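FAQ

Q: What does a record look like?
A: Structure on top, sequence underneath. For example:
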């Protein structure tokens, strides 16, 4: 047992990221049943849809699970009310100031984890009283930090300053990556892209296939003027680049982005006009597998990697 497994009362220090249009109750419960921590992604759910997913997740697993809540969510107060009413025990907060809700959640007996992309924000989260940090490197898919600090450098730098458990995220999809993260100072790992390409993921099959087809160098972080996001280089991405070539304003970019781009790409499977959020590690994902197989294979790879390193020494 390590800090992360003890904190969440889980078997393995593997966390499934709460991704928009991907992380419903089916995926969360499957990961939790496999010994990791499944997380429902509230960012793409209306309040009552989130409530339904929480209730279904309780029926699908007796193991701990969490909910990821972007704090920029327009219905944040209603969401927090549902979290309390449904007696959710673990909450991951992101995209906002941890001071806003941490003490409120902690008073209700909820374990709080905050997602950050820099040591500066990790310190602020620690001061706010969170129980753990997700340290998300530049390699990660979806919304990301502007600093472009890679996971390989972020984890050890954060470890120098942070006392609470650190969960590494960004560029991790197998047991080798898990071991590397933990050698650098992480207490556990969070996987997004690998679980996006799972059987239980609620993403469209077109999007899952696009993950398998994505090669090294075919994703890029963009839209820093709005909210930085790593995307597969499709037609929508090229349209963004064309606007940049025309010295586009922030308003021009927002107009092109419009609304529901991520839903169009990830959930509806429009590979041309949709926003296809995925991490650099997609180039290492070659098969759609069950969440249970992903966790099992990862732990086997982790143990093999440990044995291999021990042999070298």
């Amino acid at each position: 047992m390590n800090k992360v497994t003890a904190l969440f009362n889980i078997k393995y220090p593997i966390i499934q990221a709460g991704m928009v249009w991907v992380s419903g109750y089916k995926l969360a419960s499957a990961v939790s049943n496999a010994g990791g921590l499944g997380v429902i992604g509230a960012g793409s759910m209306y309040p009552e849809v989130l409530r339904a997913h929480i209730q279904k997740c309780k029926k699908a697993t007796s193991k701990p699970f969490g909910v990821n809540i972007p704090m920029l969510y327009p219905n944040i107060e209603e969401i927090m009310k549902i979290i309390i009413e449904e007696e959710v025990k673990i909450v991951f907060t992101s995209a906002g100031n941890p001071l806003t809700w941490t003490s409120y959640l902690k008073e209700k007996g909820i374990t709080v984890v905050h997602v950050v992309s820099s040591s500066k924000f990790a310190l602020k989260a620690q001061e706010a009283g969170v129980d753990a940090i997700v340290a998300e490197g530049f390699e990660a898919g979806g919304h990301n930090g502007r600093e472009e600090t890679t996971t390989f450098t972020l984890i050890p730098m954060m470890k120098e300053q942070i006392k609470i458990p650190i969960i590494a995220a960004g560029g991790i999809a197998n047991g080798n990556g898990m071991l590397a993260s933990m050698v650098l100072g992480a207490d556990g790992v969070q996987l997004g892209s690998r679980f996006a390409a799972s059987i239980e993921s609620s993403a469209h099959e077109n999007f899952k296939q696009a993950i398998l087809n994505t090669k090294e160098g075919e994703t890029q972080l963009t839209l820093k003027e709005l909210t930085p996001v790593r995307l597969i280089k499709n037609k929508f991405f090229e349209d963004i680049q064309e606007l940049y070539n025309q010295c586009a304003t922030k308003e021009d970019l927002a107009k092109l982005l419009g609304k529901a781009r991520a839903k169009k790409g990830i959930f509806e499977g429009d590979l041309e006009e949709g926003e296809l959020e995925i991490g650099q590690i997609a180039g290492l994902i070659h098969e759609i597998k069950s969440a249970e197989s992903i966790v099992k294979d990862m732990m086997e790879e982790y143990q093999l990697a440990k044995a291999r390193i021990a042999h070298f020494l």
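Q: Is there anything notable about this one?
A: The two ends are 24 Å apart (CA to CA).
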